[in-house]
Amino acid sequence: MNLNRAAISPGPARGPVDHEVRDQIVAAATEHFRLYGYEKTTVSDLAKAIGFSKAYIYKFFDSKQAIGELICTRCLHVIELDVKTAIDAVDRPPEKLRRMFKAIVKSSLRLFFENRKLHDIAASAATERWEAVRAFDGRIQAMLLEILRLGRETEEFERKTPLDETATAVFLVMYPYFNPALLQYNFDDAEDAPLHLSSLVLRSLSP
Amino acid sequence: MNLNRAAISPGPARGPVDHEVRDQIVAAATEHFRLYGYEKTTVSDLAKAIGFSKAYIYKFFDSKQAIGELICTRCLHVIELDVKTAIDAVDRPPEKLRRMFKAIVKSSLRLFFENRKLHDIAASAATERWEAVRAFDGRIQAMLLEILRLGRETEEFERKTPLDETATAVFLVMYPYFNPALLQYNFDDAEDAPLHLSSLVLRSLSP
């Protein structure tokens, strides 16, 4: 299959076909990682399992990590959507913040712990600070900043503390309870933590 | 040496001599773990290195973990003393809390990261929730509760929230930044985190 591909789709047609093949590799890799774990799988294992040559996979991805990054990005995107949905479902900034804490922990737990074998992609990603994770953290910080800004506008949150300082501190409180590498140690507390933490944070934000 | 011991100290005299031998084993084990790591060392390795028989070590400790627990207890005791000293150096509860955050993170970082090889005892202890760690967490919680109680008495902290609830929440904020298993992932933030987090917590405590 790999040798025929170039003949079938040369030049301009390459883009969409590349996209399809990449999707096919990612889907097969996700399934393979789900069964055998990410850390222990090599690109050779993956090639054998998918039925492509190793060289062919390397045409589309620079490394195993590049495949892992894409899987990770998609997982994190699901979490991000859950969080966004939870925030958008209510109007008042304090309630948005409460929902954000709850949703991010719940969604992270579900995604990473329903399937322990996929979790090690997330743990590697978080430990090695992959680009996918840094981008995700950035978007979570942006959502948080938006809620804080809104709460200051509606005068439900205090305005004395510099906004950046507040945002950093709230993110530091939240972070260990959704970061997948940390979450594995926080398992006992993860159920109740969002409630306790968001209540504390809201008290800190009261005008 | 090991075979003579029973003859030298039979019956009532056993206690103090046991204590000395235990200390000797712990000191040698600490040094061995420091050089070769805790996870990779077996009781046989340890026996060889110390020059005792494996059976003799087992007279004093049930397992490698039992030795690790004692080392861990001593390390955690150093952190506890640092925290206590920091708290006692000032009078006002808000400042006590600030110092507590700073001291616990600083002392944990120093102890566990100056020597990476000893750190894996701490990480095992924290991950597997050894008794030494649970006892330590309990004493940290007690110190925290005492500061909160004092701050309510002096009316520097709010009293509307149930004390237990406040104590749990503040502990959940602090915990990821001193737990050795988590600390390894929080390394980038560990420098600034205590300041940001204690400021947030103090805002949440204001009456």
UniProtKB/TrEMBL annotation, chains A, B:
Coiled coil: none annotated. InterPro entries: Homeodomain-like_sf (IPR009057), HTH-type_TetR-like_transc_reg (IPR050109), HTH_TetR (IPR001647), Tet_transcr_reg_TetR-rel_C_sf (IPR036271), TetR_C_27 (IPR041478). Residues 19-79 form the HTH tetR-type domain. Keywords: DNA-binding, Transcription, Transcription regulation. GO terms for molecular function: DNA-binding transcription factor activity; transcription cis-regulatory region binding. Pfam families: TetR_C_27, TetR_N. Gene3D superfamilies: Tetracycline Repressor, domain 2 (1.10.357.10). Residues 42-61 bind DNA. PANTHER family: HTH-TYPE TRANSCRIPTIONAL REGULATOR BETI, HTH-TYPE TRANSCRIPTIONAL REGULATOR RUTR. This is TetR/AcrR family transcriptional regulator.
